[in-house]
Amino acid sequence: MADTVRSRYEFAALDTDPGWIEAYWELGYVILAGVFEPDEIDRIGRRFDRWYAEGMRHPSTFRHQNKTIWVEQAEGVGQIVRGMQWPSYEDDTLDAVRTDPRMLRILGPLIGGDIKQIINQLHWKAPGSNITWGLHRDVRSRKPDEAFRELGSSYVQTGLAVDRHWSGNGAMQILPRSHRQGRLDLNDHGGARGDTGESGWAKAGLDLSGLIDVAMEPGDLALWGPYTIHGGGLNTTPDSYRRLYINGYVLAANCDRGEWTFRNGQPVPLNQAEPALIQYEQVRTRTEAHYPELGAAGTKPSD
Ligand SMILES: O=C(O)CCC(=O)C(=O)O
What we know:
This protein is an alpha+beta fold. It has helices spanning about 20-25, 40-55, 90-100, 100-110, 150-155, 200-205; strands spanning about 10, 30-35, 60-65, 65-75, 80-85, 115-125, 155-160, 175, 210-215, 220-225, 230, 240-250, 260-265, 265. The chain has a single domain, classed as Jelly Rolls (Sandwich), CATH 2.60.120.620. The chain is about 20% helix and about 25% strand. The chain is globular. It starts with 7 loop residues before the first strand and ends in a 36-residue tail after the last strand.
């Protein structure tokens, strides 16, 4: 049976149709259509392509402080770039998206105007590459626990569609209302490459029949919370890349990590010379660019 709470809203009607705010808290996610314009998406997409090409020049996963590019070998496809963290230190177009006034208009009613950022991330699902982020809750990555307070009401993840997303090219999936289901035993049941996590969650007793595809047109923005079960999806098309730009925001007073993004409703520029402690513990002690050894901190894609 279809949910009685609507999950899709037009960005152009943000003020006149404010049901999206309650829908976000109620469902654990919401989709806002048409937040960015086609010409903007075109520019953003070209930056994605440049970073992809940069990643393909590296023999393996590359890290420079918070910036990292996850390079992998995919069976039958060869080398691919799976994702990248913190391009915004070096990319003005992508940087402008994360501090765009439209982001603040959306975040303001949810977490206010003093905001830090803990995720700035590009995701690619290359055609046929078996890439997926197995179904999980983002709380798994909010470590250490004590640095992240009042998770449920303080953290909002946003994902901007750069391509059209549909089930065929690995659109992310979401389980509506799953943020209200307690923690079950774990927040993460995905495992090996290509494992969307469904069988693991089913074994843990979760009813996945309500799982939905986050179908989006380029320029649409999905919002979800740290306890919402999401991920999965495989790109089975022969030729359609699926690009997603994720920016994760937090009410600043409830987080000890992250880059300031809006202070008192005003954008805060990044300081490349002094990157903040976010997920990479050695950000200030290992300042040179390097290839982390397989299995070392920073090689594993996170979210
Ligand atoms: O790119 C995707 O489809 C998955 C994204 C995701 O699950 C995450 O960033 O937490």
